[in-house]
Design brief:
By secondary structure, this protein is mainly alpha-helical. The protein is built from 15 helices and no strands. It starts with 9 loop residues before the first helix and ends with a helix. The relative contact order is 0.12.
């Protein structure tokens, strides 16, 4: 008589499909370091450019903007910004330097919940009164990324590899952020200029982009076939690959690598401030610790495993 064949439970089927639970402590550390790196340059920009743009003698003074808000009856609770309380040049400089100092710590891997919330509060204060100079999508993106990163952080322990693992929910939210950013960028292109469907956009993109960098001429002079292939790769990475951020492990890793490589190409071929570096932050959540350890040098891998 044949033995009964055991039917796996739905949970066992999911585990088999998606793989066993993975660790993301190393991933969290890399996310914090990269986010801190982005903030270092964001606050450095405020230190150097804040006075001529937002100072009392700048192009769009924060003080004048805040005075108009106060005259209209607005309070801190209507526009939560530290500069609703003090919009002096000294206040602008002090908060920029405080943000810069904390950013350096986070870039070195030392981050906890309060540190990330302070960064979010300071940069958000600048963004809410920054007027024209903060009217770009990446200003909201850095604030959202920081809040999700804060949910990954230990409540008080700032050490790079704190014993407490990051919550799974925060990892999923990071992937969801990467999904929304990439898919949104892809759909905008497909609904925009016909050159994206004719595969001709890159034929002149590198020459006419607002901020070319030293490698842009090399990219511009590549053959049309390479440019057309680049457009196809763009569509695949932005429209198809993001869906696999929630898929089985191998597909998730492949999606993370492709989306990350795409951002690196954008960094090498152009200059969109810190946007592409910032977009790399949630993409890192697609890569688990086991994958990072496989590509680490042996000595580094052995050191990390005994931490």
């Amino acid at each position: 008589m044949d033995e009964d064949v055991r039917v796996p439970t739905p949970w066992e089927t999911l585990v088999r499909w998606f793989g066993p639970p993975r660790s993301y402590q190393l991933t969290r550390t890399l996310i914090f370091r990269l986010l801190g790196f982005v903030y270092v340059f964001a606050f450095l920009g405020l230190i150097l450019q804040g006075p001529p743009l937002l100072g009392s003698h700048g192009l769009t003074p924060i003080g004048t903007f805040v005075d108009r808000l106060h005259a209209g009856g607005a309070t801190f609770w209507d526009l939560p910004s530290l500069f609703m309380l003090d919009s002096s040049d000294t206040s602008i400089a002090v908060w920029a330097w405080i943000g810069f100092a904390i950013s350096l710590c986070v870039a070195c891997g030392y981050a906890n919940l309060p540190m990330l919330l302070v960064l979010w509060a300071i940069y958000g204060s600048f963004a809410r009164v920054g007027q024209l100079w903060f009217a770009f999508g990446w200003e909201i993106q850095i604030l959202e990324t920081t809040l999700i990163a804060a949910a990954m952080a230990h409540p008080w322990d700032p050490r790079p590899l704190a014993a407490r693992p990051p919550p799974v929910t925060a990892i999923v939210l990071m992937r969801w952020l990467a999904f929304r950013i990439m898919l949104g960028a892809g759909l905008i292109k497909l609904r925009g200029d016909p050159c994206w469907t004719h595969l001709t956009c890159l034929d002149w993109h590198f020459e006419t982009q607002p901020l070319p960098n030293p490698l842009s001429p090399w990219f511009h002079h590549l053959p049309h076939a390479v440019h057309a292939g680049g457009v196809v790769f763009n569509h695949f990475v932005e429209v198809i690959a993001p869906w696999f951020a929630f898929g089985p492990r191998r597909l998730r890793l492949a999606a993370g690598v492709m989306m990350g490589a795409f951002q690196i190409v954008l960094i090498l071929s152009g200059n969109l401030a810190f946007l592409n570096w910032l977009t790399l932050v949630p993409i890192l959540a697609c890569i688990d610790d086991d994958a990072w350890l496989r590509v680490c040098p042996r000595r580094v891998r052995e050191w990390l495993r005994v931490r």
